Amino acid sequence: MLSGRILTPTGWITGSIDFSERITRIQEGPVADSTLTILPGFIDLHVHGASGVDIMEGGMAGATVARTHARHGTTALLGTTLTAKEDSIRRALAGLAGVIAERPSGGARMLGVHLEGPFLNLNRLGAQPPDVIDASLALVQSFHATAPIRVLTLAPEVGGHLALIPQLKAMGIRVQIGHSAGSYEDGVAALAAGVAGFTHLFNGMTGMNHYQPGMVGAALAHAEYAEVIPDLQHVHPGALRVALRAIPRLYGVTDATAATGMPNGEYALGSQRVFKCLGCVRLATGSLAGSVLTMDQALRNFVGLGLDLADASNRLSLNPADYLGETERGRLAPGAWADIVVLDQALQPVAVFVEGEAINLSTR
């Protein structure tokens, strides 16, 4: 049992929450410590690494990533790949399959894969390696057979990608636009074909001006969902505020790399070498290359932008859960998984539970 100020689907209550693997009861009543805030665990749909390891390494890298991010309140996540040669992607997927099948002790639940590449535009790669190819249904089905793909990023203007979108949607995959040089019109056509969201909004896509609205304009005008990196480095706070007003179910992701939780230095991002310095990760060219963001810091950043705590929480838990169709996560309600983060008055995690398991925060 936990007690404090609890965010429920119908709003805040002061009281207690009982749980084992799932939540059994939430009730109002007096509490011993009214300074504690109890939120749904965070759900990160775009995470590449942490603690010096990268998802593309395969093996048990995913377990290390899941454990590291759990200590910052992330209770569920998608292991996210990079553009790479086909055999490298298959190695990463094989490693993720084991972590998806069995949650590592002390770690977040791996809900599946975010396949970010290789179906991207060569001219909008950002920090992605240049190993792009055109997508085919057979190739995606082959990847999906190795590990379940929940989200797939592609550039809709490339090859036959637009025609492929309805087929991917029929497989239950959320298709997102990202690393795209497409126009506003390309974005609108992709949304009509079944695209569900946008990958790290503003980054890796054509920007907006009043003559050529670009892919950003398509998102702001038409999207219900989009992910954004709220580390205050990838996107200017003013642009974040625009997106928060325009996209009803905007949600935050970390795009975290192997450098997350590590000292300044050189790290891997797939086949790329990246450098952590001054709180961000860059290629040798100086271009941003993922982040060192954690979801608890994302919460504090959203609140710092002026969001109330419930709204900030929803953009890191409820919205991504609903986007994936995960109705038993991202909310504190009887019957839901006991994925819980407890925060102090500074919004720092003091306790985290994943499916009822208490996570050891001492190594954070």
A few lines on this structure:
The chain has 364 residues and is α/β, with parallel strands linked by helices. The protein has a single domain (41-330), classed as Metal-dependent hydrolases (TIM Barrel), CATH 3.20.20. It has helices at residues 61-70, 86-101, 137-146, 161-170, 184-193, 214-222, 237-246, 295-304, 309-314, 318-324; strands at 2-8, 11-19, 23-28, 37-40, 42-47, 49-50, 53-54, 74-80, 109-116, 149-154, 174-177, 197-198, 227-228, 251-252, 265-269, 272-277, 280-282, 340-343, 349-354, 357-358.
Topology (elements, then pairings):
Blueprint: E1 2-8, E2 11-19, E3 23-28, E4 37-40, E5 42-47, E6 49-50, E7 53-54, H1 61-70, E8 74-80, H2 86-101, E9 109-116, H3 137-146, E10 149-154, H4 161-170, E11 174-177, H5 184-193, E12 197-198, H6 214-222, E13 227-228, H7 237-246, E14 251-252, E15 265-269, E16 272-277, E17 280-282, H8 295-304, H9 309-314, H10 318-324, E18 340-343, E19 349-354, E20 357-358
Parallel strand pairs: 1-4, 5-8, 8-9, 9-10, 10-11, 11-12, 13-14
Antiparallel strand pairs: 1-2, 2-3, 4-18, 6-7, 15-16, 16-17, 18-19, 19-20
Please supply descriptive tags for the structure shown above.
364 residues; alpha/beta; globular; 7-stranded mixed sheet; 27% helix; TIM Barrel
CATH class: Alpha Beta
At the fold tier of CATH, the topology name is TIM Barrel
Regions with little confidence, pLDDT below 50 for 5+ residues? none
Number of strands: 20
Q: Please give the domain count.
A: 1
What proportion of the residues is helical, as a percent range?
Answer: 25-40%
Morphology: globular
How large, in whole angstroms, is the Cα Rg? 19 Å
Q: How large a portion of the residues is in β-strands, by DSSP E?
A: 25-35%
Q: What would you call the structural class? A: alpha/beta
Order of helices and strands: EEEEEEEHEHEHEHEHEHEHEEEEHHHEEE
Outline the biggest β-sheet. 7 strands, mixed
pLDDT averaged residue by residue: 96
Number of helices: 10
Terminal CA distance reads 24 Å
Tell me the CATH architecture.
Alpha-Beta Barrel
Strand arrangement, major sheet: 3-2-1-4-18-19-20
